[in-house]
Amino acid sequence: MSRPDGSSGGQRPVGPRSLGGHSRDSLPSLGDFRITDGPRRGSLVVLQLTGRLDGRAAQLLQQRCNEVRTQGVQHLALELSGITFLASSGLGVFLAETEEFKESGGSLHLVAASSVVASVVNLLNVGRFLSLVPSVDDLVVKNSR
Amino acid sequence: MAAADTTRSAPPAAPGAVPTRAATPAAAVPPLRRRQRRFFSIRLIVTGVAVALVAGGVLGVGWVGERHVRSVLSTEMEARLLMTARNLARLSAGALLSDFPELVLHPAVREIQEDHPEFAFVVVVDHEQHVQGHADARTLDQNYTPPPDLQPLVPRNRLAAGEAILGNDATLVARVPVQHPSGGAIGTVFVALQRQYLEAEATAAREEQGVVLMGLLGLAVASALLVMTVLLRPIDRLRDGLERIGRGDLGTPIVLRDRTEFQLLADAVNSMAAELQRAQGQMMEKERLKHEMELARQIQSSLLPAHSSLVGDFEVLGVHQAAAEVGGDYFDVLELPDGRVGIAIADVSGKGLAGCLVMSMVAVLLRSLRRSHRTPSALLAALDDQLAGNLRPGVFVTMFYGILDPRSGRLSYASAGHSPVLVHRAATQQIEWHYTEAIPIGAVRGALRETLRDYELELLAGDTLVQFTDGINEAWEPQTRQQFGFGRLEQVVKNAAAGGSRAVIAAVRRAIAQWTQEAPRLDDETLVVVHRLPASTAAAAGTAGALAGRAVPGATEVLGERAWNQRHTGRHLALPLDPHALRGLRGWLAGCPQLAALPEAEAVLLEHALHELCANVIEHGYRGHPRPDPTVSLDLWWIPELDLWSGQQPRDPQRAAAAGEQWTNLQRGAFLLRDSGRSFSPLSRKESDLDDPEVRKRGRGLGLRIIQEVMHPVLYLESTVQGNITVMRFDPVEQSTEKEVRHVSTRR
To answer: Which end of chain B is more exposed for a tag (fewer CB within 10 A), N or C?
Structure first.
């Protein structure tokens, strides 16, 4: 029987935002998942995601997307080159938020998807529902045309 | 201009402001909150403009009139002066030649002065400038000097020689010479008018004009106010009407009896409200239909079996994909008391909630009748008897019902007007179509029984039977409007049959999606596939099922127990009840010697699939369980080379061989998960239709897809003596082949 490294014990990094108020004991810590604000490009807001995007991180991402939307931001780009794991709940947030942004007349773009993200998206053949772009520059150029 | 506040709390204080009305009491809706805004009364604006125009007009006319009056008056007075002076000069001509001219001239001048008090003075002088005629006798014979500041003026009347008009500030003077009868001047007459008299006349005229002006102004104000009040009366009604519309009352029209543009405005507002009401009605109807569709979808989905069945060595799997407008497709796999299995598939002719309700009737009736009728035709006839009275004219149901005996491999079936049955024979690689002749249920009352017949066919090892609804063969290619048809279906089944039920269903769905270019479905697509496992796999079912504690174990129990008994040959991982601990899966997988050589992409997906499975069990199977609990763990094993389905060959041996240069079949094996939580099958979740944006918005149901795309089949044994057991087959060669096929098909 082998116990995997890091499966329990040890110090866990805490995410950049405190998410107090949840009483569910099943919530794991955020692990190495981070959301940082990228450079804003005109009306396009960029968020850089890094680390493991699993269930708990997906909740944080969902919450952040909600905040961004309620602030009136119409176009959001998620920079994904640093994503090392993408759980179904994270992919679910991508799909759901794509629809939400579309409904509010805006758009959500997934930029520079890491190989992990691309693998999961291809596996489920959901790329047709998402806007996957190689870089923010491509997006800005495309929109300016 | 006066301005007033329009809010209800502060009624207008300024004069002339438009009065506001209280809110309609009938409205239970709170009154609209309006921003306080000042406004200018149209009445006051129009009245002010009218007053200004009238005043300006009257003053202008008065000014011009006065100038004219002055001019006429001056000319007239000058003429009178000249006439008086000339008459006096004529009189004076004789008098001055007499010895005592003053005796004639003095009384004459005094008389003139008395008759004309407006004359300042009247003087007659002789050629030596001695006064000979004057109202004052004391000045007679004195030397006369006219007022020194008299200036000659431009005459308004024609003057004779020697005549002049002179003037200063106070007087206007006519100077006329007195002529000797033989010519030559013998004296001069001066007649002077007081200018004051002229001014008095002009002022009197002006005062008269002022009175007229004030009268006209008063009249203008009164009539402007009156006319505007009458004209603007409809505004209050219009405003009340608009406020009612704002509160959502679209049914009460604005009633005006007006012959001005306000009537047109009211008509326009009324027709707008009517349009709004109609649009609102349509929107509500749309919402109702949407709700009804959702309800229908839920009913339909609740009636369909959630996962595949392994019956003996038969794998029975069905799939249903609802159209945009929910249709009435239905399928079911029913356990029968003697170990046989009933397989039903039906298509109701109606759509929406109506079609769905008929479908649910069929489902309920089928479940209650299945045990009381030995043959499929008897069951369909009984269904027809029960349903026919309840179906509206024009609504009918096509239905296939078969009874599979897993021991003999024989399927007896009957079909009420349903699509033909497709059978792929593994031994000959040939397709057979089995047609039936009966009419649909409900088509002709009482006639079905006459046309129904039982048919029988035998499924040998590796054979595949496919039954479907017309949504499959009638799927349209958007450009050519060509149907998918039986021929293409045949080809797809032929290519995929070796992979079993799941592979056939996946292949048909892919082919249909490609054919329709993923356009929205016009009809439900339903497919049921019965596949008899190859002989070697089926042989595994010969052992007893101690694990499940069942007297007569099914194939699932047998296969599950076989995996459980082999777990000691594999590698184990104990996972605490903490989703965070799932991070360790990657390292554990890398430590499994047989899996270490997996290409990076395969390893990543395998980790994802295992993560989804474990996270689901932790979340749902242990919901509410106190944490942390060191005594509880999930146990995961990788059992290499365990292929419970070893009778199946990779679908494309050549491709597998080519791939084998990079990795070998040693990587084929099975994962086994044991948990002691509440039974929660990863298979109990229905596959969601991601083509529906509402489903995507929920963002759920993707975990199951990941598991099934990476590992299949997945077996689940709940509540065994060891706990819940999940067995998942992993075959990277097969996965890789399937993915390549999909890649090609999605690239198109």
So the answer is: C
